Amino acid sequence: DGGITQSPKYLFRKEGQNVTLSCEQNLNHDAMYWYRQDPGQGLRLIYYSQIVNDFQKGDIAEGYSVSREKKESFPLTVTSAQKNPTAFYLCASSIRTPGGRSEQYFGPGTRLTVT
Amino acid sequence: AQSVTQLGSHVSVSEGALVLLRCNYSSSVPPYLFWYVQYPNQGLQLLLKYTTGATLVKGINGFEAEFKKSETSFHLTKPSAHMSDAAEYFCAVSGFIEGGGADGLTFGKGTHLIIQP
Known about the structure:
The structure holds two protein chains of two kinds. Chain A is mainly beta. Helices cover about 0% and strands about 45% of the residues of chain A. Chain A has strands at about 5, 10-15, 20-25, 30-35, 45-50, 55, 65, 75-80, 85-95, 105, 110-115. The radius of gyration of chain A is 13 Å and the shape is globular. Chain B has strands spanning about 1-5, 10-15, 20-25, 30-40, 45-50, 55-60, 65-70, 75-80, 85-95, 105, 110-115. In chain B, the strands form two sheets. In chain B, strands 2, 4, 5, 9, 10 and 11 form a six-stranded mixed sheet that branches. In chain B, strands 1-3-8-7-6 form a five-stranded antiparallel sheet, with no helix packed on it. Chain B is globular, with a radius of gyration of 14 Å. At the A-B interface, strand 5, strand 9 and strand 10 of A face strand 4 and strand 5 of B.
């Protein structure tokens, strides 16, 4: 059964701690993405990766870091520098097409709460 | 550059009534357009998409959308609402990214659909 898995579903951390969110896909997609979702603000792109060992900043990359050592995995680290980390985080993937105009497939999300 | 505007952050309809969720876009190139649905505390699921060809596209769960270039719109409709349609709906546009690769999906802020019994 192909798809995207994110773990854990709910994550709680103390302020000042780094935390890493997991994202794994078995769809054989080249491109992967991380979005942050806040109420009333839609989805905002944090980072994306087109191929292994390459990634680009999105619109709100400050306070976040990523790695792409394997095609299947794209973990996101929320660092202590992120001023307001409490949010719902969504991972997505897509195939690479000329012009990059393919739909994205989403994981179930991780809700991070920092207190 | 591209952008998406979804008119109405909340839309309420009665069960059995027509559902109409509005989406207007801007894009410097012929767009690809998508509608996604999100149930509480879940990821996004693709409802339907327009790429090229027929401007009326049908999706899952009885939804359809019509691409109108002259109006730069891609409104989502369903003839008869069900209670199970209550969810958040997102419109997205994909423009052209130089060199290909990761697409430039831009999402609207979403419309929360409420179904009244």
